[in-house]
Amino acid sequence: MDEKMDLTTFHHSIKEKVKFHEVDFMKVVNNAVYFNYFEDARVKYLQDLKAKYNLSEIMTEDSFFIMAHNEIDYLFPAIFDDELIVYTKIEWIKNTSFSFKHIILNEKDGETIAIGGGIFVHIKLSTKEKQNLPLSLISAIQDFEKGVLKKG
Q1: pTM for the whole thing?
Q2: I want to staple 1 with a disulfide (CB 3.0 to 4.6 A). Which of 5, 39, 41, 43 is the partner?
Q3: Cβ proximity of 122 and 97 under 8 Å
Q4: Does 120 map to a domain?
């Protein structure tokens, strides 16, 4: 397992159970559903970070995040009733954006199901323009992630 697959570098995870409506006619989880799992994980990550570090200024009023890039590699299919673990971390931070990394494992056998990530941009909701990330958020991420790099 390379460094990017080292689960000890992930400090956040959620569980997802594959529901009947998420499988397709081939009896596997439809490819688009994995992006929903990633979204669930990102939202929970930010909610937990917000609560742990008292970040009342994020995800309220004019502070909002939009997805600018999303990617995934499908490695092994998940099927109905599988229990999955979605690991999440932030890989890097810039002035107005940050990058998530996700790994999805099948809880039963530890098989890696998918690897992906995305880039979030911080915007002012009222104008839809980029805005700098609050310093309190950057500090919280750096404390929680222990080693995440701030670029540029």
Answers
A1: 0.91
A2: 5
A3: yes
A4: yes
